[in-house]
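Cross-check.
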Amino acid sequence: MNGSAPNTGQNHSEDKKLEEYLNRENVELGSNTNSGLRAMCWNGIPPSLRPRCWRLLLGHLSTDVERREVDLARKRQEYLDYVSQYHGKEMDIEWMRNAVKVIKKDVPRTAPDIAFFQLPLVQECIERILVVWAQRHPASGYVQGMNDLVIPFMYVFSSEYIAESTLSKGKLKNVEAAAKDLPLDMIEADTYWCFSSLLSHIQDHYTDHQPGIQTKMTKIDQLLKQVDPLLYRHLSTNEVMSIQFVFRYINCLFVREFSLPLLVRFWDTFICEGDGFPDLFVYVAPPPFF
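Predicted model, tokenized:
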């Protein structure tokens, strides 16, 4: 993953304005990116406020300040109950047994160049998240690439306790020391719920034949043909198909392409879009790769 941390485009007064907005009795998310929290976060979120904003925008944190702590504790406990119910149990269904085998293979290969994600305790968190999600969503189960989508959430929610530079670039010894006192049970639960919310917008990426991805690749082809017909003809003449260079970007939502600080800046905007995120992604995906 390449790239460096971007400037969120917000100055100190705007950061303060956002923090004050988050502390209101009731936070308005906004029905679209022209109003409310979505509008305030679309151009980037300050790292210190990103965990709270993501939880709110993805529906994990109540917009009512008086209900937040109670609701958050309830959802974290609900996830722990799911773990007790689904993880580490004997699987009666063959597809689930196979899914667990694939998950166990994929987790150690997740973000192999980042020490934080090679910590056994962190890998155990990712495994539990994926197993629980697969069990509760049999229409798709686990599909390779989902493990990558856990990374930004684990990174953002861990950044409340460990510096982003340590999380993204720290040496193993330093990361191990910093992670010793992490409340991983809370981070894991928050990651699960926000990961689930994100996937609810793109679940057709992971059902049979992945129709959501196929549709996006078709739209990207159409967009390229309109914007740059010469390049489109060149690729077509040389039998270069979009699946050869776009599939991974869509399937993993850029996770394998950019550094974590840059990646989460992209995701700020994606998350603000809500239901419109899959459509926006079509316009974001082509430029870096064409």
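The two ends are 18 Å apart (CA to CA). The chain has a mean pLDDT of 89. Passed to J.P. for a second look.
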